[in-house]
Write a structure and sequence with these properties.
Layout (H helix, E strand, L loop, with lengths): L5 E15 L2 E9 L9 E2 L2 E3 L6 H13 L4 E18 L2 E15 L16 E8 H6 L6 H9 L3 E11 L1 E2 L6 E7 L9 E2 L2 E3 L6 H13 L3 E17 L5 E15 L13 E8 H6 L6 H10 L1
Parallel strand pairs: 1-6, 8-14
Antiparallel strand pairs: 1-2, 1-4, 2-3, 2-7, 5-6, 8-12, 9-10, 10-11, 10-15, 13-14
Length: 299
């Protein structure tokens, strides 16, 4: 047993992931030279003050080290590191570090990270490519690798109902579409009107509600015309990176008179319009795969 003074420290940290430019990135903080003489990156976070809730501590630390306001998970992983001979403030001690690591996320439109605290333990903050961390191209503390292995993107399967609404014939045929906002995983692209089915909600009721919210039009739901699915990693409107599997029920539908207009506020839909089918088929309008699939099954 070491006779050195015992020092135990409880710290709270977070793994924040995002999809950016087709790759997964991790938010990291660079340790100051007084902590590490060589370049070393770690998870944003730090010591939990006496009487402080660890979840509040990590949110505070993330803001100080990156300037970002984060949301963190309710649950966490706990890691223990025992160094019988460690240097702390120029003194040899028997050190024991307990690290509580949460999953965290920031809004998709969050600014670039920057250090807020002065003369702290970190001097920089940045989103670093996941692959560069794993390969060692980004020199990272051991905690980073341990935590990344336990904090894979959140898995979500979502069942949604969408309306295939057509009007006109021949070259004048149009399809009712909605354009995704910056809060969505594929901003700027067009998709079918519709959305997630609430627990216990009938798909046709969900679809009527979604079309009214996204297009401002009354919807009459017809027969099921197809089932489509998609699987990708992307940021949810909250900013949380998700391993997402969407199952889409496609229904033939008709809508009432009037021009489409978005009714929901701060949602994932920024506009709605009747779009020429020819523009979709020729690629003049950028759409999600579900639109292409829908036009194939109803043609």
């Amino acid at each position: 047993m070491s006779s050195l003074p015992q020092r135990q420290r409880v710290g709270a940290y977070a793994v924040l992931l995002r999809e950016h430019g087709g790759r997964i990135e991790v938010l990291l903080s660079r340790l100051a030279p007084k902590v590490s003489r060589t370049e070393l990156w770690t998870l944003p976070g730090g010591g939990v003050d006496h009487g402080e809730d660890p979840r509040l501590a990590v949110v505070r630390e993330i803001h100080e080290e990156t300037g970002l306001d984060a949301t963190v998970s309710e649950t966490a992983h706990v890691y223990s590191s025992h160094l019988p001979r460690a240097s702390r403030d120029g003194q040899l001690v028997n050190a024991h570090a307990i690290r509580i690591v949460y999953a965290g996320w920031v809004p998709p439109d969050a600014p670039e990270p920057r250090v807020i605290e002065v003369d702290g333990s970190t001097v920089d903050a940045a989103w670093k490519p996941f692959d560069d961390i794993v390969s060692g191209a980004v020199p990272a503390a051991g905690l980073v690798g341990e935590a990344l292995a336990d904090h894979l993107p959140f898995r979500l399967q979502r069942v949604a109902a969408y309306a295939v609404v057509l009007r006109g014939t021949g070259d004048d045929r149009h399809v009712l579409l909605t354009r995704l906002s910056a809060r969505a995983a594929h901003p700027g692209r067009w998709t079918l009107p519709g959305g997630g089915i609430d627990h216990g909600e009938h798909p046709s009721v969900a679809l009527e509600r979604e079309v009214e919210e996204e297009c401002g039009l009354a919807c009459e739901v017809g027969a099921l015309v197809g089932v489509h699915d998609t699987h990708f990693a992307g940021n949810a409107p909250s900013g949380r990176l998700e391993d997402y599997h969407g199952v889409h029920l496609l229904f033939a539908a008709t809508v009432g008179d009037g021009e489409p207009a978005v009714r929901e506020v701060d949602g994932t839909t920024e506009s709605a319009a009747w779009v020429p089918v020819a523009d979709v088929r020729t690629g003049r309008v950028e759409v999600l795969d579900v639109v292409t699939y829908a036009l194939e099954v109803v043609s």
